Amino acid sequence: MSHAQANKPCHLCVGEENWLDSRTVYIGQKEPPPGAAAYIPQRYPDNRIVSSKYTFWNFIPKNLFEQFRRIANFYFLVIFLVQLIIDTPTSPVTSGLPLFFVITVTAIKQGYEDWLRHKADCSINECPVDVVQQGKAARTQSHKLRVGDVVVVKEDETFPCDLVLLSSSREDGTCYVTTASLDGESSHKTYYAVPDTKAFRTDREVESLHATIECEQPQPDLYKFVGRINVYKDTEEPVARPLGSENLLLRGATLKNTHHIYAVAIYTGMETKMALNYQSKSQKRSAVEKSMNAFLIVYLCILISKAVINTVLKYAWQWSPDRDEPWYNHRTENERQRPVVIRAFTDFLAFMVLFNYIIPVSMYVTVEMQKFLGSYFITWDEEMFDEELGEGAQVNTSDLNEELGQVEYVFTDKTGTLTENNMEFIECCVDGNVYVPHAICNGQILSAASSIDMIDSSPGGYRREHEDLFFRALCLCHTVQVKEEETVDGIKRGFHQGRPTSFYISSSPDEVALVEGMKRLGYTYLRLKDNYMEILNKDDEIERFELLHVLNFDSVRRRMSVIVKSSSGEYLLFCKGADSSIFPRVVSGKVEQVKARVEQNAVEGLRTLCVAFRRLSPDDYQEACLLLTQAKLALQDREQRLAQAYDAIERDFVLLGATAVEDRLQEKAADTIESLHKAGMKVWVLTGDKMETAAATCYASKLFRRSTQILELTKKRTEEQSLHDVMFELSRTVLRQRSMSGLSVDCLDYGLIIDGATLTAVLKSGPEGNYREVFLEVSRNCSAVLCCRMAPLQKAQIVKLIKASKEHPITLAIGDGANDVSMILEAHVGIGIMGKEGRQAARNSDYAIPKFKHLKKMLLVHGHYYYIRIAELVQYFFYKNVCFIFPQFLFQFFCGFSQQPLYDTAYLTLYNISFTSLPILLYSLVEQHVSMDTLRRDPSLYKDITKNSLLRWPVFLYWTCLGLFDAVVFFFGAYFLFDNTTFTSNGQMFGNWTFGTLVFTVLVFTVTIKLALDTHHWTWINHFVIWGSLLFYVIFSLLWGGIIWPFLNYQRMYYVFMQMLSSGPAWLSIILLITISLLPDIIKKVLCRAMCPTPTERAQSNRQCLTVEPSSIFMLSQSSSRMSF
User: Fold this and answer.
1) How far apart are CA 979 and CA 501, in angstroms?
2) With bands split at pLDDT 50, 70 and 90, how would you rate the model's confidence at 407?
3) Which one of 211, 234, 551, 1108 is most buried, by most CB atoms within 10 A?
4) CA distance 537 to 591
5) Distances in Å between the alpha carbon of 966 and those of 8, 299, 883, 885, 1077?
């Protein structure tokens, strides 16, 4: 690629002076003719796609490196190494085995996922491809393609890499393509070959082509491409033609309705736009994960303080010589000569090893499994399956499941998200006269339309001319494709009563609605053939217009234009676009009448477009041609130059009229927004639409109620008053109401409307003060906010502004189009709707749902459950580890701080892996503290869990104190009950291993029964796992003690468990200590429920007992019990 700069041609195009980041592609790998630019062969990657992360050779080192970057894993590795290096009280197996288990499970999961990626890569890389070599097409494998190869692609085949179209089987050099796999748009898009290469239609002709392509280096924007093709003829200078995105065929797209094409490879393998788009997005972290890390730091501090206290007390204890070196434990000479500091540090490390189990290593793997398995509940949910799309909800990342239960702000797009994006033409207005399709029946004007001037009313000459121009404008100013024949059930339909029946396809539903509306009013767009657009007028005459230039729509200009030449030789510029972008450029026409109609339609919630035209003289046309050609040939800043050219051409319009199209609200959109409000969420609508249209949609969707007092922060208002005055007036209004609301029961409901221009001014802090804070204060006190006329980047800025406010609320963004991707990526949780504007939003989101109504269940049910489950999982893990390790700390005071373990090695190792792990994992997958119907019926229950309420410091301290209390009960209960007492029938006393086993038995039973008491939703699988894990502990202990399997007669534990169980007092003490340990928690719960119950606790007490159905294991799915294994 480094040679690309050296391959610049001798002549420079406009804007190329600074254009360095380029590449030169030699078509067919042929050198340019003598005298042209110097030929320097270049090295580009082959066409191999690699989506896998590892290879066979680097899997182990790379995976281990990534896993040990996690602090907990690295910490346990250090502990394990310390156990190996120094003489520690516990075996290295106790920390090595759990660590090995966690690392192995994670490695197997990641290795399996990567193996699947390898398989997918192989199937893609070995696909057959036809390449033109020595005048004929030869078949090769996809991964062998090189930049510059000429490829033959047949109908319904997928493009193997990014290609520039050279020629097509169609005479006009066009081809039709669907890009569904890239952006989800199933419509047929038209791509073009440059005029100088479209005549090369056979293998031999293509082989004889001499040309080079200069283009930008690969970049991920699917809709942008800048390049130029130089075609070398025999005697002439090379002909330079611009190349844009309309000439570039992207890898992954499919050829349609075209027999075959010839195209040249320009980006291959990992440099294709598809590959560049699939690179990972920035990692989002949930609030729960941040809480977990904070709690871990607290426990790490507790661990270090325990080790320090024990080390200091050990040396204080050993100050007396008879304790330092008792008669039964003489030191060696080497040990006596070791410095005290070294001995103390070694002891400190030994205590760290002894107490290290307070940090739960298995918590990470349990949380990961819970998130991964739990995410399937969303995809399995039958209520979130859409019959029309044939798809259900998708989970693109399972790391944020619990964040769905913490949302405080919802930012939603309007078109396609709240509305259906299914456009229906309602009416059009020409010079103030309104036309409604199908308002005439058998030549009679319908009574409902009696006040409307109809198209058949034989208007006067001036009006007739404008009327014809308006309908022609809408038939010509678009990018709609016509499919004139469609096969339905094997029968071809193409004509109806002798007139052609056309099927319109476009990437924009608005355009199809307008063209179909014109058809219903008597003007039918027929086809685009050989650069001529044909329309059938209402007199059944075919009119032909030569299409000269298309000035494409973009979201900044908010308009599109075409330049056409009529059969009489007249040059016409037709333009359609948003009223705000058309009216300022109009010099004549009935502006006031049209504007009044546009505003009336907008208030009714209709989408409006204005239509204008301009006659061009031959000189004007030549000037426009020159401007457009120079801009299109520019390789540096092409978009900026095109924008300047469009601005110069699109002026001095004559206004013709306006159109109104209806976009209906999605089913249950209003119900969903009402539920979100009741759940305490603030809903903001961010849209590019005009204020009146958006406001009407907000009223229809119950975002604003009729009682809502609307506060406006718009350009219109800031033109009347200064921004400073408007901001502080709004602030006073809101704050005055807030101070009064404390005295009055009826407090006003505020709604704020802001537009893009005012938002830009607000975000720029002026000399008069920082308006951001005032804006945040006002919006914080409004129940709903509408942001209209928003550019895509402004949507992301709004989300970022709210995220960074002092409360740091959890935000959710939901949208369906490419213009929503930036806000979806910016929000804590991004949800894409599988809409009609493509799949870019769904592809870049964390979750994808078919319809807006599914957001209600996603947050109020799934989000609620995910949060309470993982919150209990985290707190329970810390609690059970405090119960586990604090008795070990207390035991040191009774063994001279000699680092003697209280529990056996096997118990230390298996406590977190086997004895207590499965019950909490299952709890975190199936727990339903209240029923789904209750959560749906009462959205206010969502408020109980917001602001991370179950993982706040007071709750964490309660669980920690409960763990400390239980640990003290286990240890001192066992200690005092058995002090100076004989227990067995033969008078034998309990030893330290029996004591430790007794404490451990009480511990395992207590923490497991504590979880059983916290469980509200019982299924047979809960019973199996909870009581099964206790049974497993008993059976394992009998095995380990050599009772069941004498071969396992491990010396220090031999018959210890059996000896403990043979003692009656031991049985009594186990039952007594478990009861005492659980009693405070039970009393606290009973008192809290009786004296100050939360709404959730009230809902629990009101609901009827759940009946457990004998269904299959997939009853875990919250969607229903209908799914079977």
Assistant:
1) 98
2) very high
3) 211
4) 26
5) 78, 17, 6, 11, 5
Is residue 495 scored above 60 in pLDDT?
no
Q: State how beta strands 128-133 and 239-243 pair.
A: unpaired
Q: Which residues of 441-460 are buried (b: 16+ CB within 10 A; e: fewer)?
A: eeeebeeebeebbbbeeebe
Residue 331, annotated as binding a ligand: no
In contact, 208 and 233? CB cutoff 8 Å: no
CA 191 – CA 165 distance, rounded (Å): 8
DSSP output for 1002-1027: HHHHHHHHHHHHH--S--HHHHHHHH
Q: Is 203 annotated as a binding residue?
A: no
Question: Is 183 annotated as belonging to a binding site?
Answer: no
- Residues 6 or more apart in contact with residue 135 via CB below 8 angstroms: 203, 204, 207
β-strand 486-488 against 248-249: which pairing, if any?
A: unpaired
Closest CA to 1039 of 854, 844, 904, 840: 904
Q: Give 250-299 pLDDT, tens digit per residue.
A: 988 889 888 899 999 999 988 888 777 654 555 577 788 888 888 888 88
pLDDT at 766 over 70: no
Burial code (b: 16+ CB inside 10 Å, e: under 16) for 239-278 equals: eebbbbeebbbbbbbbbebbebbbbbbbbbbbbbbbbbbe
| Residue 414 annotated as lining a ligand binding site | yes
Q: What three-state secondary structure class fits 996?
A: helix
Helix, strand and coil content of the chain, in percent to the nearest 5, comes to 50, 20, 35
Catalytic residue among 347, 413, 755, 938: 413
Q: How high does pLDDT run on average in the chain?
A: 80
| 415 annotated as belonging to a binding site for a ligand | yes
Least confident of 719-728, 976-985, 1009-1018: 976-985
Can you list the alpha helix ranges (DSSP code H) found in 191-339? Answer: 203-207, 273-277, 287-317, 321-324, 333-337
Give 976's contacts (C-beta < 8 A, 6+ positions apart).
Answer: none
Number of Cβ within 10 Å of residue 1125's Cβ equals 6
Active site residue 413: yes
Q: Is 688 annotated as a binding residue?
A: yes
Find residue 785's DSSP bridge partners: 684, 752
**Residue 14 in this model has a pLDDT that exceeds 60:** no
CA of 256: how far to CAs of 175, 246, 263, 822, in Å?
A: 7, 16, 15, 31
**Separation CA 756–CA 788 (nearest Å):** 6
Q: Is 641 marked as a binding-site residue?
A: no
Is 453 one of the annotated binding-site residues? no
Contact 1041, 1058 (CB under 8 A): yes
Q: Which pair of tokens denotes residue 219?
A: 């970049």
Instruction: Provide the 8-state DSSP code for 912.
Output: I
Distance from chain centroid for Cα 199: 45
Which range (172-186, 610-624, 870-884, 1108-1122) has the least confidence?
1108-1122
| Residues facing residue 519 across a β-bridge | none
**Residue pointed to by tokens 């893009």:** 756
Gap between the Cα atoms of 183 and 189, Å rounded: 12
Per-residue pLDDT tens over the stretch 905-950: 778 878 888 888 899 999 999 998 888 889 898 999 998 888 888 8
CB of 635 within 8 A of CB of 13?
yes
Query: Which tokens in the block code for residue 602?
Result: 């907008």
- What is the Cα–Cα distance from 729 to 244, expressed in whole angstroms? 50
The two three-digit tokens of residue 1116, written as one number: 């875990």
Read off the pLDDT of residues 123-173 as tens digits, 9 standing for 90 and up.
Answer: 888 899 999 988 888 899 999 999 999 999 998 899 999 999 999 988 778
CA distance 341 to 335: 12
The stretch 812-824 carries a mean pLDDT of: 83
Q: How far apart, in whole angstroms, are the C-alpha atoms of residue 801 and residue 781?
A: 16
- At residue 268, the pLDDT reads 92
Residue 47 assigned as binding residue: no
For residue 183, what pLDDT band results from cuts at 50, 70 and 90?
A: low
